[in-house]
Structure formats: C-alpha cells, structure tokens
Amino acid sequence: MDFQLLEQRPSELCFPQLNSSCRKPTLHWSKAVLLTIVLFCISLITVALNILVIISVSHFRQLHTPSNILLLSLAVSDLLVGLLLMPLEIFRNTSCWVFGDLICSVYWYLSGNITSTSTGIIVLISVDRYVAICDPLHYPTRMTVVRVKLSVCLCWFYYIFYISLYLKDILIEPGRYNSCKGECVLVINDIAGIIDLVIAFIVPVSVIIVLYMRVFVVAVSQARAMRSCVRAVTLQHSLNQANKSELKAARTLGILVVVFLASFCPFYCYFFVGENVVSDSSAFFVIIAFYFNSFLNPMIYALFYPWFRNAVKLIITLQIFKYNFSNFLFSV
C-alpha cells in the first residue's frame, strides 16, 4: 500500500475509492484545456488532410504510380496517427487513464507498429527515388506498381511481427509497468532499447542518408548536364523535361525525408539518453513532436504537388462523383 497516496485529498486522486489510485495530473485546468483543444484540432486536421491524400491517389487512375502508392501507404499510417495515437496520447497526459490496462497495451503496440511502419515506408521512398534518378532506364521495370504494393505489404507485416516481439511483455501481461490505477506507462529495458535503436533507428536512417546522398550527387550532375545543353532537338527536350520531373519529385520527397528525420531523431535521442520510461511531461512533447510529422506530410504535398491541389479541389467541390472523372488528367 502506498502511504503517500493515502495522504492525498480524495479530490487529488484519479479513483478516490481505491488505495492504489494515481494522483491526477498536476497541470492547471486552463492550460490542460487549451493544450487539449489545440492538439485535438491538429489531430482533426491531420485526419482530414490524409483522407484527402488517400482519396486522391486511390480515385484518380493517373495517380496510380509507384511513387504515389508509397505516398498513399504513408498517408494511411499518418491517418492512423491522427485518428488514434494523437487523441490517446493527449488523453494519457492531460487526465487520468480510464480505459484500463488492455487498451493501454494496445495503444503502445499501435504506437510502435504505426510509427515504425512509417519509417519503413520512408526507406522505400528513398529506394524509389534512388532507382528513378540513378538508374532511370530500368526504373519502369524495377519499380512497378505490383512490386511496390508487395513491398508495402511486406513492410507492414514485418513491423507487425517485430513490434509483437519487442512489446511481448505488455501484450502478455497488460499494465505490468503501471505503478497505480489511472496510469499508462511503458518501461523499456536496456537490451531491448539498444536492439530497437539499431533496428528501428540506426539502420533505416543510415540507408535513407546514403541513398539520398547518392541521389543528390546524381541530381546535381544531371542538372549541370541539362544546363550545358544549349541546343536540343524535340526528343532531347522531352527527355530533359522527364529528367526535370524526376528531379522535382526527388526534391519534394527529399524535403519529406528531412522533415521526417527532424521529427524522428529527437524521439530516439531522448529515450536513448533518458531513463527509458515513457511517462513524464518532456516525453509527452517529444512524442507529440514525432506524431506532428503526420500533420506536416500532407502540407508538403499541398505545397509542392500540383496534382494534389487539383485533386483536393475536385474532391471538395464533389466533382469526383461525375461520370468517368477518375480518368481526369492532372498536371504533374
């Protein structure tokens, strides 16, 4: 029995009728309300924007390309972040956890699975751009829609298996790390933390950096070559236009990768130097910053992809319900 908890006034406890109850969060109610409103608005916008991405790529046949299939898969994981992970993380840190130990374990499992899958998809995006820029002649045969879909499915299944092993303790025994009722925490032991650091952070980030460094070098050389070609026949002009399109896509997806790493690195750096306890307020802001990446991704599409802006206009104005509008041609 925790005598310190018994000394608290009942109004300060999550469950006053239980001796093992946790204390209520100490954040002032006005700050808690403001923080909750702001973060829930971000969550709703994240859901709405990623639904628009999913509808756009799924509905319009012109957008059924390997690169866009990867963006579609990333949008699905971002949608789940905004729909499930953000609200539960907000609730977990601004009020007492009332959903029970089982839902707590499910939350941590989904959090690990969805965010890890996003990392895998970013790796696939880097591979896609690497092949498109560094080996453009073989790109149509190597990066087909079928192969990309298969790669995405394997990515999801791999991380389902990996996270099941990584978090097997809380899946077998939900709530094993909770010290009192009304709490939802995750404790990561040192060995599991090091393994996860290597598998989910060092390896994929290294692959992403190496591939994009290669893409950057080749893109710069191609840009210089195009600028040096003053005279060009029609065929050469069309090839240059294709190269410019690929370079533009590489630049946009490069921004996507940089933003992802900017959100991803603090998350792992914090838990690497911290005590591996996912419970305090500083951990909350690191996790929210990581989830915030799901809000930024569709913003990047809106800024740099004309097809996404045009598709959103068609969706909002309900023109997609017109006959044969799935064959609408976009300027990409």
From TrEMBL:
<feature type="transmembrane region" description="Helical">
    <location>
        <begin position="285"/>
        <end position="308"/>
    </location>
</feature>
<dbReference type="Pfam" id="PF00001">
    <property type="entry name" value="7tm_1"/>
</dbReference>
<keyword id="KW-1003">Cell membrane</keyword>
<keyword id="KW-0675">Receptor</keyword>
<dbReference type="InterPro" id="IPR017452">
    <property type="entry name" value="GPCR_Rhodpsn_7TM"/>
</dbReference>
<keyword id="KW-0807">Transducer</keyword>
<keyword id="KW-0297">G-protein coupled receptor</keyword>
<dbReference type="InterPro" id="IPR000276">
    <property type="entry name" value="GPCR_Rhodpsn"/>
</dbReference>
<feature type="transmembrane region" description="Helical">
    <location>
        <begin position="191"/>
        <end position="217"/>
    </location>
</feature>
<feature type="domain" description="G-protein coupled receptors family 1 profile">
    <location>
        <begin position="49"/>
        <end position="301"/>
    </location>
</feature>
<keyword id="KW-0472">Membrane</keyword>
<keyword id="KW-0812">Transmembrane</keyword>
<dbReference type="InterPro" id="IPR050569">
    <property type="entry name" value="TAAR"/>
</dbReference>
<comment type="similarity">
    <text>Belongs to the G-protein coupled receptor 1 family.</text>
</comment>
<keyword id="KW-1133">Transmembrane helix</keyword>
<feature type="transmembrane region" description="Helical">
    <location>
        <begin position="253"/>
        <end position="273"/>
    </location>
</feature>
<dbReference type="GO" id="GO:0005886">
    <property type="term" value="C:plasma membrane"/>
</dbReference>
<feature type="transmembrane region" description="Helical">
    <location>
        <begin position="33"/>
        <end position="57"/>
    </location>
</feature>
<feature type="transmembrane region" description="Helical">
    <location>
        <begin position="69"/>
        <end position="86"/>
    </location>
</feature>
<feature type="transmembrane region" description="Helical">
    <location>
        <begin position="148"/>
        <end position="167"/>
    </location>
</feature>
<dbReference type="GO" id="GO:0001594">
    <property type="term" value="F:trace-amine receptor activity"/>
</dbReference>
<protein>
    <recommendedName>
        <fullName>G-protein coupled receptors family 1 profile domain-containing protein</fullName>
    </recommendedName>
</protein>
<feature type="transmembrane region" description="Helical">
    <location>
        <begin position="106"/>
        <end position="127"/>
    </location>
</feature>
